[in-house]
Specification:
- By secondary structure, the protein is mainly α.
- It has one domain.
- Helices cover about 40% and strands about 10% of the residues.
- It has three helices and two strands.
- It has a two-stranded antiparallel sheet.
- Strand 1 and strand 2 form a beta hairpin.
- Helix 1 packs antiparallel against helix 2.
- It is globular.
């Protein structure tokens, strides 16, 4: 028909974590406090960290959260004003909060 339509609200891929992350995102999108596209930045980061942590449990090659070493992934937000890096301390507070 010559038009382009959005077909999905989210995507996830990966060798071991893809299916589990897709399940988390589906659940949060359908049954969470708000659809994923309506979440504020902090809520979205919290879900992303938890999804990565879940994926890392299923796939040793997935970099997730190192709870014992207190190591968190690098998280960047792409917005209208540019790219923002999320500080380690903020990631720790969001993950444990």
């Amino acid at each position: 028909m010559g038009a382009h339509f959005e077909a999905t609200d989210f995507a996830a891929s990966g060798s071991g974590g893809g299916p589990s992350v897709r399940s988390i995102l589906y659940y949060e999108n359908a049954w969470g406090r708000a659809p994923l596209r309506e979440l504020d930045e902090k809520s979205a980061i919290k879900i992303a960290l938890r999804a990565l942590d879940t994926a890392a449990e299923a796939d040793t090659a997935t970099g997730g959260v190192d709870r014992f070493g207190k190591i968190f992934p690098i998280v960047k937000i792409l917005g209208l004003s540019g790219i923002t890096s999320i500080a380690h301390d903020e990631l720790a507070a969001l993950f444990h909060g």
